[in-house]
Amino acid sequence: MSREIAAPPAPLLPPPQQKASGRVVATMTLARLGLMLSLTAPLIAGLALKVQTLVRPDQAVAVVGVVTTAGAIGALIFDPIFGRISDRTTGRFGRRRPWLVAGSLGLMLGLLVIALAPNVWVLALGWLFGQIAGNAAVAAHTASLADQLPTAQRGKVGGLIGIAQQASTVGSAYAGKLLGQDMLLLFLVPGAIGLLLVLAFVLVLPDRPLPERPAPDGGLRAMLKTFWVSPRRYPDFAFAWVSRFLIVLAAWMFLTFRLFYLQHELGMSAKEAASVMATGVLIYTVAVILAGQLAGWVSDRISRRKVFIGASAVIFGIGTWMLAHAESVTGFYAAEVVLGVGFGVYVAIDLALVLDVLPNPDEAGKDLGVFNIAMSLPQTLAPGLAAALISAGAGQNYDLMLTAAAVIAVVGALAIVPVRSVR
What global pTM score does this model have? Predict the structure, then answer.
């Protein structure tokens, strides 16, 4: 039985035919670095260190799980909403610029609230607001990639974006190591860097205004449809969504509790764990950069995406298995190398594949927002799932959590197999 594939409507703004200029690509990449640094620094170390100043050590894991879940819910809901709003934004400043600026400023305010939070409730509210504002900027930035990049450039730039995201992880880890004793600097320095890099991108972005005001979209009913792209009409989009969901779920199960893993499994203090984590993330990122650039270049040359996604998930699964059996810092670093190779291949190809299967160029922000639910929803679920697995049985069972993450990553690779429109 053949599947029904919908033909996309004629776009108001045709997709780009010429490659984006070097300065657009450079500032686009740096803006992604800044946004992810602002959002990742709290997740890598900031929230874990801040929470330990507010509650007893035995409560810290559960509290971090609750706080990160609250923020991820905000990202889950508002990413596609802001993507839709930016698609329909009119005015001489373009569709994406206003939300890049407003979102970055709002994120900075949220980080200030977190840094000064006197209790867990204020901390959770600050993180929720920061995630909502930050995802307004992320939605606009991701949509700008669809606006500016032709198909032949997406693999290479996707690799650069992947490098930027992983470099933000290194910066976040070292922020925890160097600024961890000063909560104000720990949260505001990454936020300020992010804001400046986004502003640099805004200044050079050729953000074309809509040539005409979009027709009314149906009010509340249309807003609810923001969260839906028919898997029957667009099956390739659906399979790609499921694949990203599972692979991101596997990654964030460990990422949220990385600091706690080092403290518990290798018997380190919070300060020692932050230092080892920073070195591990650096090793991880070097592997991501090398693997991601090679994979993006090869993918563009041979016009294939799916095989790289499958290979990346299998490698990532092996890396999580290695973490489950690491008994020393050396073993931890070795696992970081393997994880870096696997995730580097994934982030280089995933974005290119997603852009290739978008249903409608005029609704790139909305559709990418829906797709980014596959990034934010697993972040909502991962802390609770990981915490439940860690707490299963007697003591703290990190081996069970990591083994489950490895299995989920491999299943995520298999989900990409049915995609037909991309080789």
Answer: 0.68
Work out whether the CA dihedral 91, 95, 98, 103 comes out positive or negative: positive
Three-state secondary structure call for residue 227: coil
- Tens place of pLDDT per residue across the chain (423 aa): 444 444 445 555 556 667 888 899 999 999 999 999 998 888 777 888 888 888 887 777 778 878 877 887 787 778 777 877 887 787 778 888 999 999 999 999 999 999 999 999 999 999 999 999 998 998 888 888 878 888 777 777 877 887 787 788 778 878 887 887 888 899 999 999 999 999 999 999 988 777 666 666 555 555 555 566 667 777 777 888 888 888 888 877 877 777 778 888 788 887 788 788 888 878 888 888 888 778 877 877 777 777 787 788 778 778 888 887 888 889 899 998 998 888 888 777 777 777 777 776 656 656 776 777 777 778 777 877 887 888 776 667 788 888 888 888 888 877 877 777 666
3 state SS for 118-153: CCHHHHHHHHHHHHHHHHHHHHHHHHHHHHHCCHHH
Asked if residues 332 and 320 have their Cβ atoms less than 8 Å apart, the reply is: no
Q: Classify residue 417 by its DSSP letter.
A: T
Query: Which tokens is 105 given?
Result: 């400023």
